[in-house]
Amino acid sequence: MKAMKLLSKSTIALCAATAVLADERPAALIIAQGGLGDASWNDTAYAGFQSGLEKTGITGRPIESPDVVAQGEEIMRRAADGGFGLVISLEWIHGEPMEALAKDYSDTSWVIMNQTREGDNVASVVFGEHEGSYLAGALAAQVTTDTSIRGINEEAVVGVIGGFKAPGIDKFIVGFIQGAEAINPDIEVIVAYADSFGDPAKGAQMANAMFDDGADIVYQVAGGTGIGIIEAAKARGHYAIGVDNDQDGLAPGNVLTSMVKRVDVAVDQIVTNYAADTFPGGEVMNFGLAENGVALSPMTHTRDIIPASYVEKVEAMKAQIIAGDIDVWDVSNEGYPDFFK
Amino acid sequence: MQFEHLIASAIMLTTPILLAAMGGLINRRAGIVNIGLEAKMLAGAFVAVIVSSATGSWIIASLAAALAGAAIGWLFSLSITRAGANMIVAGLGLNILVAGVLGFILSWVYRSSGTLRLPDVALLPKILPSGLEFVPLVGPALAMLDPLTLLAWMTTGALPFVLASTRIGLWIRATGNASEMARSVGLQHLTIQDFTTACAGFFSGLAGAHLALVSLGLFNEGLTSGRGFIALAAFYFGRDRPITTAFACMLFGALEAAQIRLQLEGLPPKLIGTLPYVMVLIALVVVSIQAQRKSST
Fold first, then answer.
1. What global pTM score does this model have?
2. Which of A207, B119, B254, B269 is most solvent-facing, going by the fewest CB within 10 Å?
3. ipTM of the modeled complex
4. Nearest residue of B to residue A209 by CA position?
């Protein structure tokens, strides 16, 4: 026990020392389900965390737990007790306990992702997935009728498969439909839900069903289920659109593009703000196209097989969205639009 | 919506359930309720992807998957027959253990979480020429026919005969129906039970190989998604009879295929998603009512 106390004292002393150096207490990044090494959400966020720390000179470390969901409150409480001044959680489930904890730990800065939480010392990070999906839809709508491209039929039909029917997922889907219809008002967008984020066999079957119905491009918003969608596109010689990460390399040439969520940009920005004493407590930080929080992938494997004018059109639309000339429907704030119930 | 594609998709989705159900059925005939089919399917899928990538041969991959399933099944059986573990508890434990071990290997050896993607995975070949696709009604199904699907249905066809008319079939049934009697006539009933659990593992491993190699060519921790439990429901529904069980499997496969396509026709996905499970519930209720009637008359 004495040794423990001594150890914790020296830890505090160490923290105090670094705090003097960087003029801030260290930062913690709580890793979500899936853990580090997921080549996805967690790894991307951690990359941004590291670059933020390097730039600002603040110390910090990731916190991993095998039971990150059930132990959420305990993990966050310990982080705050342990002298961390900034606690960023990547786990969606942590939103509610964080809101409660933030009141007790008012001199700690808290950050939660993909939702809006109350509290003067809580910053909420949301991404403009609807904006990125709009661009994906606009690109798909241009490609889907161009029969000069391998694997494309003349029918104006594209598909989108969501994990579950929920506003967080429909935010992507509605943006995609809106973007597709902006290019071609008569386009048919087939929408389906897998009812699972982890069933690739079902994802492949669903994508095949859509290909049978004349679709040649399917946008996946279904996590692990989506891996099957991409494999089906590869097997059938058609196209999938990836999500969250740059998934273009999963089936080179058969993933048209990916709607990338730049969680690294967001985390980097927050660490920088925290170091500069401009932590946006109580605010909602929106990372849309303008903030480079969402974007289409560089299309490494597909850029050369589609006409450059399509990509230019998408770039033009991106500029219009940033300038406010195009208003993309956001299901998470505005509810459901008339064209999608 | 083309009906031909629905049939093809239903047959393809039936195969893994059917393979696992046939294995589980043999096992149950010998007196062991195998809750761990799911685990052996998952292990089979994992081994199939690794071996297929390493050798480039679907035959070796499928065989390795089956043997891995059989080995796990045999060890699992020893815990029940020799160490006296409760078969339900051991089965549940096996499901959790295998999922955990595979997750560990994934992150430890392959530095990946959830999905294993390897180069040059050989998929199951199509047996028949693709020209058959234009045959009315069953064309796409014939063109997509793979060797494991064929094996599954051949097993289904042979099993009634094997169980009813061969020596080994008789031993299995004797062990399940009257283990004391079997022992008194000199049958090694524990060894027979171990053999049938290994059989269940063998077929579940093949089921996993089919899931992984029929079109995906990769492993994912959610690949089985409860299909082992659907197989369990199928042979309960079929009252351990191969042909009836096969019909149950086909029902589940068809429902899964229809679920995907009905949704494209505008039915709410949540409702359709519950259909297979509602069917399982109804099936179990019907079976138990029938059993009650039988015992009361």
1. 0.78
2. B119
3. 0.71
4. B261
